[in-house]
Specification:
Blueprint lengths: L1 H13 L2 H5 L3 H6 L4 H30 L8 H23 L1 H7 L13 H16 L8
Helix pairs in contact: 4-5, 4-6, 5-6
Length: about 140
Amino acid sequence: MMEYFTLFMGAVIVNNFVLTRFLGLCIFFGVSKNLNASIGMGMAVTSVMTLSSILSWVIYTYVLYPFGLTFLTTVVFVVLIASFVQLLEMIIKKHVPTLYNLWGIYLVLIPKSLDGLGIAFVLAGLLALSFFGFSGMIPL
């Protein structure tokens, strides 16, 4: 049971995708005011991150690395994640339109300098730095 607790704490605090790798910050700030939209977006982000991580590993291990194309890693990963996001957006728009309408447009969150979301990004950065201090404490 202690192993599961350690794994949970490692995933939530030490290796949190949002707070340690700055992934999904638009979703983190944009949807947190509405519980239903937050739950749906959380599931969407989790599914996109899981699927894109698995496929990214497969592409890197069996295509990019063997053929010496590792310089294309960032481009391939960005295209892959953007493709998953677009696919998920089309699926949600077709099958769960109420959730799609709750989300609004969160992909174009460009806050004014230190106004509202601007300061929230600064605070998220500070939180991420504090969580980064935990790295290495819980081995995976």
